[in-house]
Amino acid sequence: TVLRSVFRTRVPLKVGRLCYSSSVPTTKLFINGKFVESKTAEWLDIQNPATNEVIARVPKATQEEMLAAVDSCSRAFHSWSETSILARQQVFLRYQQLIKDNIKELAKVITLEQGKTLADAEGDVFRGLQVVEHACSITSLMLGETLPSITKDMDTYTYRLPLGVCAGITPFNFPAMIPLWMFPMGMVCGNTYLLKPSERVPTCAMLLAKMLQDAGAPDGTLNIIHGQHDAVNFICDHPAIKAISFVGSNQAGEYIYERGSKNGKRVQSNMGAKNHGVVMPDANKENTLNQLVGAAFGAAGQRCMALSTAILVGEAQSWLPELIERAKALRVNAGDQPGADVGPLITPQAKQRVCSLIQSGVDEGAKLLLDGRNVKVKGYENGNFVGPTIISNVTPEMKCYTEEIFGPVLVVLEADSLDDAISLVNRNPYGNGTAIFTTNGATARKYTHEVDVGQVGVNVPIPVPLPMFSFTGSRGSFRGDMNFYGKQGVQFYTQIKTVTSQWKAEDATLKSPAVTMPT
Ligand code: NAD
């Protein structure tokens, strides 16, 4: 297939020979500017989700290697933080061009390891690229504040300064976008960065590291380690690491937030979701059904902003048969195959989990209107495919509603009124994203004001903010004070130093000590 040839041919490409050296290729660590083979005895397989072939192995880095990586970050911090902001900006201006030039190569690697379609993989890179472009405006974003003459001869001003070594821990579902939410913002602020990519999709991060090096980032400014729990614990505990950015499941995110915070670090933790799409009967039917189907089943539902729950209000309940027809028309196939709409799930275990959550809905009395569990994909019989699935008559106590399914499954609930729909959404513990579909401005306004969710779309199914804003998931979907990217991203990766200075004319020199507080 195209992807298998990519796997062989990508080696001599511009981005260089970086991760593969034997017949079952191994993923390197990136330490102090070098791609190095791990000395570990523990390796994890990386499987192509469309075939389950083992395509590479990723090491669980040893303690020694992790220490070497963080030491390299610490050493590089001294010079990188003193490098002029214009020079740091130039690195990221070159970086954004390199990413643009290599978008298709990055997408192929993403499809190979993650499974999503090539077009969707390009979108994954593109949304990360936008954060790199945003990072290039750091000269404005990092401005401090000044207030002259706060008293006689005295001025106060603030600097935004980097923290030191920062670390990122990323999930499998966006191999490019999520690492790019992290290290470009962290580094452009003057921090150095330790990244631990998802062990299931590490290669894209390695390519991104190579491009960053080619863009001129000095050795040690970005280091990459691989692994699972030990690597995560190492990051949470190492005293040189001042801040942790995490994106992934609640189980890992809550743990990392707690352990990292206890150790005195800043932590921002973006976690799971259950995003509701509220469909009002006055909505534009054609648009709404298409948007709903795209947002529920795109990327096989493996997006934290997937619209995985529909609430049909009143008359809109009669739109279900058409919704099913549209979902049925999607083509399930390997991500590199022309016309593929829905690719495989990441692992056989993920498929099993999704199938059992579908079954739980049936067992608890919901109606399975479209069942994708037995989908067959010709030529890819061993892949982790689940076809679009729609479950209706779902109630809030059912497991298929309370758990994040993270598969191509849309659960459908019904509501009599907008108020009922809002109350349902607000009772759900997650607060990542939601959308309302309506042609009535007052309805849209009421929804956006009353719904307790951090990112709201009005006739926009996946309202992920562009990077001049921030990614503002809330409640059970987020732990921390400062969100990813945008102004908040800069706040997260910087601390403020406030300078108060007095320059008196010589004749105003104090004649005796001032022992009382100034009033
Ligand atoms: P995951 O939590 O399994 O893995 C994320 C990272 O944490 C990986 O690097 C992994 O090695 C590490 N990890 C996994 N389990 C751990 C544990 N028990 N202790 C410590 N570290 C652990 O997540 P995933 O399956 O890769 O990604 C899917 C999840 O990520 C979904 O829940 C999805 O909603 C969420 N997600 C959220 C956002 C967001 O912005 N809110 C974006 C993308 C994905």
Automatic annotation (TrEMBL):
Residues annotated as domain Aldehyde dehydrogenase: 35-499
GO BP annotations listed: L-valine catabolic process; thymine catabolic process
Alphabetical keyword list: NAD, Oxidoreductase
Record GO terms (molecular function): methylmalonate-semialdehyde dehydrogenase (acylating, NAD) activity
Catalytic activity, as annotated: (R)-2-methyl-3-oxopropanoate + NAD(+) + CoA + H2O = propanoyl-CoA + hydrogencarbonate + NADH + H(+); 3-oxopropanoate + NAD(+) + CoA + H2O = hydrogencarbonate + acetyl-CoA + NADH + H(+); (S)-2-methyl-3-oxopropanoate + NAD(+) + CoA + H2O = propanoyl-CoA + hydrogencarbonate + NADH + H(+); 2-methyl-3-oxopropanoate + NAD(+) + CoA + H2O = propanoyl-CoA + hydrogencarbonate + NADH + H(+)
EC number in record: 1.2.1.27
Record's GO cellular component terms: mitochondrion
Signal peptide positions on this chain: none
Free-text function comment from the UniProt entry: Malonate and methylmalonate semialdehyde dehydrogenase involved in the catabolism of valine, thymine, and compounds catabolized by way of beta-alanine, including uracil and cytidine.
Family statement drawn from the similarity comment of this UniProt entry: Belongs to the aldehyde dehydrogenase family.
NCBIfam families found in the cross-reference section: MMSDH (TIGR01722)
Protein name, as recorded: Methylmalonate-semialdehyde/malonate-semialdehyde dehydrogenase [acylating], mitochondrial
Organism this protein belongs to: Channa striata (Snakehead murrel)
